[in-house]
Structure formats: C-alpha cells, structure tokens
Amino acid sequence: MFKNLFKKGDSDIKIYTPVNGEIVQLEEVPDPVFSQKMMGDGVAVKPVEGKICAPVDGEVIQIPDTKHAIGLRAKDGTEVLVHIGLETVSLEGKGFIVSVRTGDNVSAGQVLMEFDLEYIRENASSDMTPIVITNAQETGKQYMMTDEKEGKAGETVIITASGK
C-alpha cells in the first residue's frame, strides 16, 4: 500500500557539468541550433581545460566518427548530448582523444575524452560546449537549469530532472 510513497527521490536525476569552466545559458550560445533549443534544452560551458567527464551515471550511446560530441543515456532514460565546441564536426576528429566506446557504462565524473582546447579555439567557430537533453519531451520529466556561473566537472550540478 505504501510501497511508492517514499520513492519520489528515485525518479530525480542530477546532471553534472562535464567540463570545468564558465556556465552560460543556452540562449547565449552563438549557434541557432543550440540557442533556439532545436536539439533540446540545457546549458553550455566555456571550457578552461580540455577534458570531458561523464555528466551522469549511464551508458554511452553515441560517439560520432568526428569525435566532436558524445551522447549518453542516464539510468532514468534521460539522453544527454555533450557537444564540444561549435562547428567542430569540420575538424574531422583532429584534436580529440576518446577513451570510451559506444555501449560502455560510465559513472558521473569519469573522463570520457580529452581535447586540444587551443586547437579548438584556433580552428572552430567557438569553444562553447553545449550540454542538452535531447529527449525531454519523451521523458515526462521537468528539467531545471542551474544558476551557477562556474562549473567543476563531475561536481557542479547543472541540470536537475524530476518527475515520473
């Protein structure tokens, strides 16, 4: 009878910043695909170092051949895309070293990849790194974005999901 009474916390999930840096609102990203939330809602980080950590406990579900992004599915089904820089697909993988594979289970804070931040700054349109929920409409959850201005990878919560 009371089995589900105390389970509310089980459906909440915290998404941590995957990279150290300045947290900015998604609307400030100089790319309409992200600023107009065409890929989904989220936040972005202006990185101060070239290391991407898992923002959630979950599974790696996508790594493009160009290595410029990584997609993960949290244990609650929330899908998180970390897109390193803007227009970085044109770098064709140069400057990125991925240390996980599709299908790997990862823990929040675990290093997923490293990238050459200076190379990105010199060869891409921006180093701004959007972190978006790509399946928010399907999950039935509410997503709250942080008000924090600085993020530490694996420690600073940038998005909190609650619901179902």
UniProtKB/TrEMBL annotation:
<dbReference type="InterPro" id="IPR050890">
    <property type="entry name" value="PTS_EIIA_component"/>
</dbReference>
<dbReference type="InterPro" id="IPR011055">
    <property type="entry name" value="Dup_hybrid_motif"/>
</dbReference>
<feature type="domain" description="PTS EIIA type-1">
    <location>
        <begin position="31"/>
        <end position="135"/>
    </location>
</feature>
<dbReference type="InterPro" id="IPR001127">
    <property type="entry name" value="PTS_EIIA_1_perm"/>
</dbReference>
<dbReference type="Pfam" id="PF00358">
    <property type="entry name" value="PTS_EIIA_1"/>
</dbReference>
<keyword id="KW-0808">Transferase</keyword>
<protein>
    <submittedName>
        <fullName>PTS glucose transporter subunit IIA</fullName>
    </submittedName>
</protein>
<keyword id="KW-0418">Kinase</keyword>
<dbReference type="GO" id="GO:0005737">
    <property type="term" value="C:cytoplasm"/>
</dbReference>
<keyword id="KW-0813">Transport</keyword>
<dbReference type="GO" id="GO:0009401">
    <property type="term" value="P:phosphoenolpyruvate-dependent sugar phosphotransferase system"/>
</dbReference>
<keyword id="KW-0762">Sugar transport</keyword>
<keyword id="KW-0598">Phosphotransferase system</keyword>
<dbReference type="GO" id="GO:0016301">
    <property type="term" value="F:kinase activity"/>
</dbReference>
